[in-house]
From TrEMBL, chain A:
Signal sequence, start to end: none
The gene coding this protein: pstA
Protein name (database record): Phosphate transport system permease protein PstA
PROSITE patterns: ABC_TM1
GO MF term list: phosphate transmembrane transporter activity
Domain ABC transmembrane type-1: 89-308
PANTHER family reported in the protein's UniProt record: PHOSPHATE TRANSPORT SYSTEM PERMEASE PROTEIN PSTA, PHOSPHATE TRANSPORT SYSTEM PERMEASE PROTEIN PSTA-RELATED
Gene Ontology terms: biological process: phosphate ion transmembrane transport
TrEMBL record, chains C, F:
Main localization of the protein described in the UniProt heading: cytoplasm
Gene from which the chain derives: phoU
Pfam family, one: PhoU
SUPFAM superfamilies (UniProt xref): PhoU-like
Physiological role: Plays a role in the regulation of phosphate uptake.
Subcellular localization(s) per the UniProt record: Cytoplasm
Record-given protein name: Phosphate-specific transport system accessory protein PhoU
Species assigned in the record: Ideonella livida
Keywords: Cytoplasm, Phosphate transport, Transport
UniProtKB/TrEMBL annotation, chain D:
ABC transmembrane type-1 domain residues: 96-308
Gene3D superfamilies in the cross-refs: MetI-like
Subcellular location: Cell inner membrane; Cell membrane
Protein name in the entry: Phosphate transport system permease protein
This protein's GO CC annotations: plasma membrane
Pfam families: BPD_transp_1
Family: Belongs to the binding-protein-dependent transport system permease family. CysTW subfamily.
GO biological process: phosphate ion transport
GO molecular function: phosphate transmembrane transporter activity
Gene that specifies this protein: pstC
Species assigned in the record: Ideonella livida
TrEMBL record, chains E, G:
An annotated GO BP: phosphate ion transmembrane transport
Domain ABC transporter: 17-260
Coiled coil spans: none
Keyword terms: ATP-binding, Cell membrane, Membrane, Nucleotide-binding, Phosphate transport, Transport
Record organism: Ideonella livida
Protein name: Phosphate ABC transporter ATP-binding protein
Superkingdom, taxonomy of origin: Bacteria
Record NCBIfam families: 3a0107s01c2
CC per GO annotation: membrane
Lineage: Bacteria, Pseudomonadati, Pseudomonadota, Betaproteobacteria, Burkholderiales
CDD domains (alphabetical): ABC_PstB_phosphate_transporter
Pfam families to which the protein is assigned, alphabetical: ABC_tran
Gene assigned in the entry: pstB
Length: 321, 307, 237, 319, 265, 237, 265
């Protein structure tokens, strides 16, 4: 390169442009770090993914032999070979239903209030800190709360409803935070456009913000649910059952109106409790059951995560600003 | 028609087996649920009248009796099996053949905390190797029982040991460490004999060291570490046919199931006595709100009979 | 010409072009009338021509105002800008044509007032021929302007010589007249100025033609010899 | 306009005052409806507040009972934690130490690895790689923690023992490591999101200066995304501090006043879960300890969150 | 405070609105200072001025957009004619105002819905349910927005897939669908390329046949091109108001001239 | 005038203004030289004047090109635009002043060739007075243009009458001459044309002055009576 | 394929770069088609054309910005003079190219660092450690960016707090700090208000004394104002290249004229 003295500033006696050789050396050196870091990144990823793989293979090796149809259709039994997870997965399903039915509307509504209605002042700040803080409260504490509140104070007993409510509270912060995030990601000009058309605040919310925020909201809900489905401690605290050799009444099939919700007041067990119980049994055959059940549970979360990703992808396609 | 049971996880396997068979026998006409809130958590519910039957790995305590009284819950105490707390070591351990209560105390008493850390401090015959301790969590009935039996005072124990609610965890711990010693329920030992070795316990120096086994428990020679476990049946619930039926069924089948899940059944006499109590509706506890150790079966039966 | 994205701009441009043509028509008529007044010694017609001057002036001012408004509002470039610039020059020329017409008309009035027409024999018909050439040139120029016809523009420029030649001939003739009859001096001078005015009309027509070439070809051909202009105008861009 | 449209009143009709009155009426009507909706939403927003209030109430109520038995001073200064023993000591420091060392180990894994992964995914990996690996990695946070507990105990500990034969079968290290791996996606996903959100124009600005990928990532993207990354860290910390089952299973539950991660230890959470599921009679002092411990934990996480909130405020970069 | 130089036309068209002594506050910050200005019916009035002079603020008073955010305050009046209602009156519901006065924003902001639903939105908000009526209106509005030909066959496609210029015309159609009396444009072309800009400008001049238009633009040339009247604002004050042609050829105030000729800085 | 944000624009504007003044200086010199040639019967000087015409023409074309380039590139408005428009008109006027000077010079050459100066007594000095007025006017106009001095512009417009009056006087005198001595007719006509040219120079100076007022006041004052112009020019905007 | 109309100046300044038969592909899409064009030293060359015609694509070839994204392909060459390196050569490291050719983007994109660090960034990337040298360079660059006076007292404040126009000048200073041979500007003022735009334009004309400039703008007036040469592109092709004055007064190609005069659409 030419050493043409182009800079007029006297300070730049030395041009910062290096000669070609120097520059190439410099670039080579800098690029070495790139490669180094990329290796490091892959390594870090590998640690995570290998862990996951180890977990999976471990579970699979132990559990897959147990994964036959009876495993899914049998109730628990003292004989490991006959024990199944019927009551557990049905229970999990029902509890998740309650959780979703509570957490989704309440979480979205709360988030809407905080994001769209509430004045931005210290109260909102406090609520905000409060919510992030709730996200860090150990789940067992929710169990303690739920025991006092739902089981005893509200007299809901050790029911699917109590459990659903507890988990709903547990994931509420997640739903609220992600919903707020989703709402915040909707540009202000969309709101202004809607208001500009003469929409009222509620119309803006219901016609625009919620539908457009849906991908984010759903992701949050599903992530929350995935967390809830694996929770053990709070549900044990409120008194989930371990042995339950029958299913709750079929949802919404009883005699209306009261009968419709019989199921919600039924006793139940859920997957993690079944697993927890089986792992703590002395007979190693049960440990196999636990591995199999864990495998099922992890697959349920995987399924939910996949659903979240798919939904996010599907719904986002037509929403851009 | 539901029979609700909750409480100890120790008793759970027996109750579960009973419930399973009972439901089958009743062709699912009666539903039985069993929870594992722990003896304490279970009693809370039981004394509020929320459960029909309580699994308990220890007798009801004064505080809980009071709660029950306050709520007007009366109960019938039914011992259903023995659990032999088993002192275990690593199978590769070569120097431990047996141990005396004395020595156990030396290891486990509060004063040992931080001091007794090597085997030769307990018994000079033993090598100069670190002691690795594993024991029940301090919130469990097992812990209470063991401390009372060994250290003479419930809940009086050194604190620097690995505790776990989950006995499998302890099994794991002991099986991994040559210098380990630990204690937990017999069933865990029984299921893991390949990985653990039970340690014969001598009640006193000079007395013969006894290994835990059905026979040694039944004949009362495994002392002081065998303890009875119970169910408490709510008197009010007993009025319901299915609960009574279940309780009867329980006592009838307890021996079989207990064996099956590796507990030590009570002598047949004990079950018939219990059945009698049940039939008569004899309420209350024979323990006066305290845990007791070293209770032999005969004594228990005697007390029961006195009720 | 193709349409702009902005119909408003199109409308403004065509509006101003129309007004230019209108102005052109007006001054063309003025010149014709002035010559009529001269040929027919019509004081009335002369007066009309003079009266029209105000209108022409006003048109110049108005169109100029429009032009600057369009420039200010539309930021024209290239052909649009050249058109506006050409129009600006064109209306200046037209206004001056109007001036020449008025000058002729005023001279006619002057001659009528002094009664010269009755008394003297003047070569008015010679003037007429020059005038016809000039008016034809002007008309052609306006026509070419309306169609932005470069070929016609070149023709006009080529023909400008003719008018100049006519003027020179007329001059010589008039000088002879004056020499012959000194009483005609004053009137002849008037005639000379009229002839000059007519010659100027031709010049203006030529200027217009040059502007047309500028609009279409983008080259300013003023002050160039005819041949150069022709070659520029016929060059394919 | 067709007669079918409800709203705007004909432009002409009434003017001035009269029109104003009409308009005021319409406004009042609309206001009422909107108010009602707002009230419902507010109620929903308050659920989380009620939850906190409930938690705090329960924790405080029982803690107060607890502190009527145990002096706060002892609680803070005692260096033994044997609340259920005959010779009861209530030195929360012991549990705090366990919590800190386990969280420390976890964060020592999760924060660097999470950050590196986030940078790698956001700045180095191709679109495909990112879109496949990120969700896979996120699965790590979806695995029930009890499974991790056994993984730590049965897989990681023996592995570590091969490297460190002295390592006890229960130790904070292995639980912490696994916990760290579990937390990685919390850190990496959120950080990656934050880095994604950094406008491409900023990156292009850096590359256009002749910067390499790493230079761009470290000098431009990370600082620009710092507030988001900090949130991710805070969440990771909260998660680490609040994690229960892994520690309950694998860390040994041994109340040791030590920060050495190769020792077994008990943490606040594992203590709580242990006691809450145990045989203690409710209402006993022993049982109440879990509330005092829970309160301590909550204060701990609260202070982290406040710190995080303050940091986000301070470092929120506009771009 | 400076007084404004306001040159009213000799033969004024009917008034559509009139600001009188309008002050506006963002909290304690006075963003508009005593603005008085006519808005003539079926004319385009452009607001120009340097960044931050209050153009948008003024514009957004006309549909009470400020009401969406806390801490604002209006003083003075904006009379909407002919019914002589003060738009800023507390009694007047901003929603009512916005139904009568539409707005088109800087960045095209179609809703991520179908093209049809975008245009129909204003009608839906009004509770309109008659399907054929809505369809007719949508078609008319899209024609008014010079978009009908381009989208007639894909009314059910998502609006976000349109090009920027089309999106902005869609937003105009959306604003038109409810037959507003005034349309407010806030820098409607600053996000568009010159060709899209040209078509929007063309549309604006087309629209004024039917509706009164107020447009904020930071592009002086654009103001010159599209507007009939121009208001030059500076630091929250109206400096000069007059016919566009006059402002751009011969502004009366030196401030205006300096700004227009690029002497500001 | 205040500075633009764009120094380039400022430079372009001042560059074009300077060139206008330069052109003005050139044509002013041309006129002066032409008159010198006339007064001193200097064929050489006359030739110089004629030679300069090409330069003036070129300047006009160049400045015009610059003007349109500035308009195309700078989108001027208001005063800037008015200045450019005024310059466009001004250089047209200046070019025509140059033409008049050349015309005078050519006539001088013609007179010299025909040897008239030697043979005849012609009222060249009268012409000189008119010429002085006109040149003074032109100089003043250029001066006013440089300073955009409206007052001076008004003065120039007011003084245009004087030159016209001079021209009329001269005409009458020349006609007398011609009548007296028909031999002088041809030469006198030449003189008349020269006088006319000088009068036109005055007109152009006046046009310049009008443009100054346009630039400063924004009002096109062409074709207005002097009083109206004065009132517009002195109105405070 | 159309052939380009290229009018080279009579007395050309030295060449700084030259594109020859440049094709560019985004995947299978050919975004640039056989572009050949000179870039003269110390001159401003503007690229204009309708949206999507490939202006930015062409510009970003000069600093190999496309290399950041997968699926691109260059055909043809861009010679950088005087050393006659083909910028697009696979052997040439894009980082090296970028060190020699700076770029300023559409939206001001200061790094969220201090003003000083922003300007020093390029030096730091080059591994420069000498503090006084860096300080001198930063000062010189800020002076070159006409920002020194405004920020000299707050070099340690965050750059994101500057106004848009200042940010853009900062980005220019950042680009200047490393003494680039060419600076590429991609619509550098489209996010700015007219006054800030004016000052950037002024700066660009100032800068060309020291450095060669290529600027993309969708504002034809801007191209007219700042550039010495203009290239009009359409659908990936170079339609016409010539001196700015000629292009804006008298383009040779009808396509160019139509675009410039607003007849495109
Ligand atoms: N929400 C707000 N809170 C406080 N001040 C504000 C707010 N919005 C605008 N301002 C201030 O009010 C003044 C006017 O702002 P406005 O947005 O009306 O300017 P503008 O003329 O539209 O400028 P631009 O051309 O940049 O859009 C500015 O000084 C601005 O800083
Ligand atoms: N990353 C990409 N992948 C595929 N095609 C692209 C990509 N970027 C641009 N294009 C296409 O290449 C063509 C040229 O784009 P480019 O951005 O260069 O246009 P431009 O002239 O700069 O337009 P604008 O004025 O809108 O910035 C367009 O058709 C565009 O759609
Ligand atoms: Mg604005
Ligand atoms: Mg581009
Ligand atoms: O659960 P337990 O009561 O048996 O310890």
């Amino acid at each position: 390169m030419t050493p043409s003295p182009k800079t007029t500033a006297p300070v730049a006696a030395r041009r910062s442009t290096l000669n070609a050789e120097e520059m190439r050396a410099l670039i080579r050196a800098a690029k070495r770090y790139d490669v180094l870091f990329a290796t490091l990144g892959l390594l870090a990823l590998a640690i995570g993914i290998l862990t996951l793989a180890a977990l999976f293979t471990g579970m699979a090796l132990d559990g897959i032999p147990r994964l036959n149809s009876e495993f899914f259709t049998n109730f628990p039994s003292r004989r490991a070979g006959q024990a199944g997870i019927l009551s557990a997965w049905v229970g999990s399903l029902l509890v998740m239903t309650v959780t979703a039915l509570i957490a989704v509307p309440v979480g979205i509504a709360g988030a809407i209030y905080l994001e769209e209605y509430a004045r931005k002042n210290w109260v909102t700040d406090v609520i905000e800190i409060n919510i992030t803080n709730l996200a860090g409260v150990p789940s067992i504490v929710y169990g303690l709360l739920a025991l006092g509140l739902f089981v005893y104070t509200f007299g809901l007993g050790q029911s699917i409803l109590s459990a659903g409510l507890t988990l709903a509270l547990l994931i509420l912060p997640i739903v609220i935070v992600t919903t707020r995030e989703a709402l915040r990601a909707i540009p202000q000009h969309i709101r202004e456009a809607a208001y500009g058309c003469g929409a009222s605040q509620w119309q803006v919310v219901s016609h625009h913000l919620v539908p457009y925020g849906m991908p984010g909201i759903l992701t949050g809900v599903i992530i929350g649910m995935a967390r809830a489905i694996g929770e053990t401690a709070p549900i044990i605290t409120i008194g989930a059952l371990t042995f339950i050799a029958f299913l709750p009444p079929a949802p919404f099939m009883g005699d209306p109106p009261a009968g419709l919700f019989d199921w919600a007041f039924s006793g139940f067990t859920v997957m993690p409790i079944q697993i927890f119980n089986w792992t703590s049994r002395p007979d190693p055959a049960f440990h196999q059951n636990a591995a199999a059940a864990s495998f099922v549970l992890v697959f349920m979360t995987v399924g939910m995560n996949a659903l979240a990703i798919w939904l996010r992808y599907r719904l986002r396609k037509n929403i851009k600003w | 028609q539901i029979v609700k049971i909750d409480g100890s996880s120790t008793v759970y396997p027996i109750t579960e087996g009973i419930a399973e068979d009972f439901q089958k026998a009743k062709k699912n006409a009666v539903k039985v649920t069993v929870g594992i809130s722990g003896t304490g958590g279970g009693f809370k519910k039981f004394c509020r009248g929320e459960t029909d039957i309580q699994n308990a790995s220890r007798p009801i305590l004064a505080k809980e009796m009071e709660d029950c009284r306050a709520a007007g819950v009366e109960y019938i105490e039914l011992p259903v099996a023995f659990d032999a707390l088993t002192v275990v070591m690593n199978p590769r351990n070569t120097f431990l053949k047996s141990i005396t209560v004395e020595e156990l105390k030396k290891i486990w008493e509060p004063a040992a905390q931080g001091k007794i850390t090597r085997w030769n401090q307990v018994n000079p015959a033993w090598p100069d190797a670190p002691i690795k301790l594993f024991g029940a969590g301090s919130d469990s009935g097992t812990f209470d029982y063991f401390t009372e039996a060994i250290n003479g005072k419930a809940k009086s124990s050194r604190g620097d040991y690995t505790a776990s609610e989950d006995d499998n965890v302890l099994v794991q711990g002991v099986s991994q460490d040559v210098n380990a010693i630990g204690y937990f329920g017999y069933a865990y030992y029984a299921e893991n004999q390949s990985r653990l070795k039970a340690l014969a316990v001598a009640e006193k120096a000079g007395k013969p060291a006894v290994l835990p086994s059905e026979a040694s428990v039944l004949d009362g020679s495994y002392q002081p570490l065998s303890r009875p476990i119970f169910i408490y049946v709510s008197a009010k619930a007993l009025a319901r046919g299915e609960v009574r039926e279940f309780a009867d069924f329980y006592l009838k089948n307890a021996a079989k199931i207990a064996k099956e899940v590796k507990y030590v059944p009570l002598p047949a006499k004990a079950y018939s006595l219990a059945a009698e109590h049940l039939a008569k509706g004899k309420k209350g506890t024979v323990f006066g709100g305290k845990n007791e150790v070293g209770l032999k079966i005969e004594e228990l039966l005697a007390r029961e009979a006195r009720m | 010409m193709d349409k702009h994205l902005s119909t408003q701009f199109d409308a403004e441009l065509s509006g101003v072009s129309t007004r230019v043509l209108e102005m052109g028509g007006l001054v063309e008529a003025q010149v014709a009338q002035a010559l009529y007044a001269l040929a027919h010694s019509s004081g009335e017609t002369a007066a009309q021509v003079i009266a029209a001057e105000g209108r022409v002036n006003q048109m110049e001012v108005d169109i100029d105002a429009d032009l600057s408004a369009i420039i200010a509002r539309r930021q024209p470039t290239a052909r649009d800008l050249r058109l506006l610039i050409a129009i600006s020059k064109t209306i200046g020329n037209l206004e001056r044509v109007g001036d020449e017409a008025a000058r002729i008309a005023r001279t006619v009035q002057h001659l009528l007032n002094t009664g010269v027409f009755g008394r003297l024999r003047l070569p008015v018909s010679d003037l007429e021929f020059e005038a016809q050439l000039a008016v034809a040139s002007l008309r052609k120029a306006l026509d070419a302007f309306a169609r932005l016809d470069v070929n016609q523009a070149v023709e006009i420029i080529k023909q400008d010589n003719q008018i100049d030649a006519e003027f020179d001939g007329l001059m010589r003739k008039l000088i002879t007249y004056m020499m012959e009859d000194p009483r005609t001096i004053s009137a002849s001078i008037d005639l000379i100025f009229m002839a000059k005015a007519i010659e100027r009309v031709g010049d203006h027509a030529k200027n217009l033609a040059e502007q047309i070439i500028y609009v279409v070809k983008g080259t300013d051909v003023r002050h160039n010899p005819v041949e150069a202009v022709e070659s520029i105008a016929t060059r394919r861009s | 306009m067709s007669s079918t449209t409800a709203a705007p009143a004909p432009i002409l009709g009434s003017t001035g005052e009269a029109r104003l009155a009409e308009l005021a009426l319409a406004k009042a009507r609309r206001k009422r409806r909107e108010r009602a909706i707002e009230a419902v939403l507010l109620l929903a927003a308050c659920v989380s507040v009620f939850t906190t209030v409930g938690i705090v109430y329960i924790l405080l109520k029982e803690s107060l009972a607890f502190f009527s038995h145990v002096s706060v001073w002892d609680f803070i200064t005692d260096d033994q934690w044997t609340p259920l023993f005959e010779d009861a000591h209530f030195g929360i420091r012991v549990l705090l130490a366990g919590t800190l060392s386990s969280s420390g180990v976890a964060l020592l894994i999760a924060i660097p690895l999470g950050t590196i992964i986030a940078i790698y995914l956001s700045e180095f990996a191709g679109h495909r790689t990112r879109e496949t690996l990120k969700p896979i990695l996120e699965l790590l946070s979806g695995v029930p923690t009890i499974i991790y507990g056994y993984f730590a105990l049965l897989f990681v500990t023996p592995m570590l023992q091969r490297l460190m034969p002295e390592l006890p079968g229960f130790n904070v290290l292995s639980a912490g490591l696994v916990m760290g791996i579990m937390i990685i996606p919390y850190v990496s996903s959120l950080s990656e999101d934050a880095m994604r959100a950094v406008p491409m124009s900023l990156r292009e600005g850096s590359y256009a200066m002749g910067a390499t990928r790493l230079q761009t990532a470290v000098k431009v993207v990370v600082p620009a995304a710092f507030s988001g990354i900090a949130s991710a860290y805070i969440l990771g910390i909260s998660r680490a501090v609040g994690e229960t089952m892994i520690l309950a299973v694998a860390a040994g539950m041994q109340p040791n006043l030590t920060l050495d991660p190769t020792e077994p230890a008990a943490t606040i959470t594992s203590f709580i879960v242990q006691v809450a599921l145990g045989d203690l009679p409710h209402g006993s002092v022993g049982y109440q300890t879990i509330f005092a411990a829970g309160l301590t934990l909550m204060m701990l996480t609260l202070s982290f969150n406040m710190l995080g909130y303050w940091m986000r405020r301070k470092f929120r970069e506009a771009y | 405070m400076t007084t404004s130089t306001i040159t009213l036309p000799n033969n004024p068209p009917p008034l559509k609105a009139e600001a009188k002594a309008l002050d506006f506050y963002y909290g304690a910050f006075k963003a508009l200072k005593g603005i008085s200005m006519p808005v003539y019916e079926n004319r385009v009035t452009a607001l120009i001025g340097p960044s931050g002079c209050g153009k948008s603020t003024f514009l957004r008073c006309f549909n009470r957009m400020h009401d969406l955010y806390p801490g604002h305050r209006y003083d003075g009046t904006i009379q909407l004619l002919p019914d002589a209602v003060n738009l800023l009156d507390h009694q007047v519901d901003p929603i009512e105002v916005r139904m009568r006065i539409s707005m088109v924003f800087q960045k095209p902001n179609p809703f991520p819905k179908t093209i049809f639903e975008n245009v129909a939105y204003g009608l839906r908000v009004r509770g309109e349910r008659n399907r054929t009526y809505i369809e007719d209106k949508v078609e008319a509005a899209l024609k008014g927005g010079a978009l009908w030909e381009e989208v007639r066959d894909r009314l059910d496609e998502s609006a976000v897939n349109l090009s920027g210029g089309q999106q902005q015309r869609l937003c105009i159609a959306r604003a038109l669908a409810t037959d507003p009396e005034i349309i407010l444009f806030d820098e409607p072309t600053s996000a568009l390329d010159p060709i899209a800009t040209g078509s929007i400008e063309e549309l604006v001049t087309e629209l004024k046949k039917k509706v009164t238009i107020l447009i904020v633009t930071h592009n002086m040339q654009q103001a010159a091109r599209v507007s009939d009247y121009v208001a030059y604002m500076y630091l929250g004050e109206l400096i000069e108001y007059g016919a566009t042609r006059d402002i751009f050829m011969k502004p009366l105030r030196k401030e205006t001239e300096d700004y227009i000729t690029g002497r500001f800085g």
